[in-house]
Specification:
307 residues, alpha/beta, Rossmann fold, 5-stranded parallel β-sheet, two-stranded antiparallel sheet, 9 strands, ATP-binding, EC 2.7.1.71, metal ion binding, Shikimate_kinase_CS, shikimate kinase activity
Length: 307
């Protein structure tokens, strides 16, 4: 594995939580767009495609297409200071070996990461994209870009959750027409059956993380960027855990539709860790590749039996 794959992966603790803005003041909107502009300057676009954008004018709504881009090359998610995790040499070798094993059977199919908010889909997705030579795309970022750069929290507040889910489905439909993408989906993308229709054109991977660990991670960076957590009261951890528990109860069956499941508890047990907080993104990515390999082997075996 070359030095590019063995690069340092920065994130809160070991597996990351992506933080964002909130609020609806003109200052916050400008701040959000400034951050978006800075992010775009860092990105090296790997592919551009169109997503429908709705615009209100004179009380009427029109629909037109805008170009959006996806890449994994430069941008990294925000981190908590003093907490860093690096891909070790052994992890790099394991990633390369697993990638070589599955590439002939993967045939360029997209990989969709699903899971609860804060489960590390973006961070792990970037590792997978790097080693597979895929492009990385965050479906939430596509939605934000199609709504003039407004953050997810701002979209929820301005237009409501239904509007956001419609835009999310549009983004997944567009991505389902592409090849060689690793896609980080929003936590609630699994609730619409039509989204599964699009994701099942590729391989979906459920990152299954204990709720207590998720609550700790989200509480560490605050809940402002998590619109579905705003209605809860109490300290950050209590708010996060209470709402996460409710959301998981609603979504757990939907997550079972994923092609493969990556259990953080199983990884920790296999490695002799007391909890999941010490798992690195590379370790999680290796497990994801192993589960994908198992699925592809089973798929190939069934195809040969039918031939």
């Amino acid at each position: 594995m070359d030095a590019k794959v063995a690069l340092s992966m920065q994130l809160p603790g070991a597996w990351g939580v992506c933080a964002g803005g909130g609020g609806l003041s003109s200052a916050s909107m400008l701040s959000s767009r400034a951050k978006k502009k800075k992010k775009e300057e860092l990105l090296m676009p790997a592919m551009r495609f169109s997503v429908a954008r709705r615009k209100w004018s004179g009380g009427r709504r029109s629909v037109f297409l805008v170009d959006v881009s996806c890449s994994y090359n430069e941008y990294q998610a925000p981190t908590l200071k003093s907490e860093k995790s690096c891909t070790s040499f052994d992890e790099s070798v394991a990633l390369k070996t697993k990638t070589q094993d599955i590439e002939p059977y993967l045939r360029g199919r997209c990989i969709y990461l699903v899971g609860m908010m804060g489960s590390g889909k973006t961070t792990v997705g970037k590792v997978l994209a790097q080693v597979l030579g895929y492009s990385f795309c965050d479906s939430d970022a596509l939605v934000e870009e199609s709504v003039d750069g407004a953050s997810v929290a701002e979209i929820f507040n301005l237009y409501g959750e239904c509007f956001f889910r419609d835009k999310e489905t549009e983004a997944l439909r567009e991505l389902s027409l592409r090849n060689r993408f690793v896609v980080s989906t929003g936590g609630g993308a699994v609730i619409r059956p039509i989204n599964w229709k699009y994701m099942h054109k590729g391989i979906s991977v459920w990152l299954d993380v204990p709720l207590e660990a998720l609550a700790q991670r989200i509480a560490a960076v605050g809940t402002n960027s998590r619109p579905l957590l705003h209605e809860e009261t109490g300290d950050e951890y209590t708010k996060a855990l209470r709402r996460l528990s409710s959301l998981f109860e609603e979504r757990s069956e939907a997550y079972e539709n994923a092609t493969v499941k990556v259990s953080f508890e199983n990884i920790a047990a296999k490695l002799g860790h007391k909890d999941v907080l010490g798992l690195t993104p590379a370790t999680i990515a290796i497990e994801a590749l192993e589960q994908i390999e198992n699925f592809l082997e089973h798929e190939d075996s069934e195809a040969r039996m039918e031939a």
